[in-house]
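Example protein was shown:

_____
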Amino acid sequence: MPDDPADLLRARRLRVTPQRRAILEAFTGEVDEHLSADEVLARAGAAIPEIGRGTVYAALAELTELGILASVGSSEPIRYELNAAAHDHFRCRLCRRLFDVTFSGRDRVKRSLRGYAVEAVRIRVDGVCAQCLDYQRGLRDGAALIIERSTLGAAALGELACTLHDSPLGRLGLAGSPLGVARIAFEDHADFAALAKRASSRRGPRAGREQLTAAAASLDRYFHGGGGPAVENALDRRIMSSAHAEALSATRQIPFGQVRSYERLGPPLAPYDVGQAMGSNPIALLAPCHRVACGSYRPETYVGGAARLRLLLELETASAPRAS
């Protein structure tokens, strides 16, 4: 290896262990050397016979993430398609999907490469696909909208019972009707002041208050590590479009402590519309949009802000049941 492994590790503030040194010393630095994990294990094992497969795999992932090593290829299963003609692909690093694209791969077959006989060229371009970009744009637009604009008009508010509820995320403004919970607002939402004023008057249907009592109990169980909030809490979806209501209902199928990518939620909506539904979620927590990701990426944009999102993710990570 051309560089001293110890220097490479110290530059990334990693401890110089015999295992890390042996793994890096497995590479000779030859330009045509691309080792598999098993080949690295075999070479490192010659220096440290007791080194385990798990140690090698974990170290390779760590060293690649820090930029000391580079990975080539994909660990995903081989994918099959009906398009058998030579063509190029775009691979989204977030949702991990492949898209057929034209990127001049076939044109490059005619170019000479000294010392090699080129028979076919298939280019794979890596980046972020248009759908993931649209989802994130919708997420940002939706989150900005609910902070700036009220979702409840005076007429709708007049039919609701309201209450304020203390939580680790700050005070929550809850509004409910006999049909279910219609709104959960954070303190920086445009609706919060109107909900707080309505709550102080104690007006609204009794059945709506009963819905809020049940929702508050579910939220308390959730914040104390009891799972949920319970999906049996009824929701009043009248202030949402039918498309947004369908997308938010799908989030209630995501188990506690787990994550699902936006394109796997189910409703056949455009990615931008799914993102906007999550970003402007008027019933946050009861419809757990914080469990929706963009492929392998967890956007920091959230209807309640990045700080609240981090708290929710930490809470669910700490409280999620461990596999036996």
Q: What stands out?
A: The CA atoms of residues 131 and 290 lie 19 Å apart.
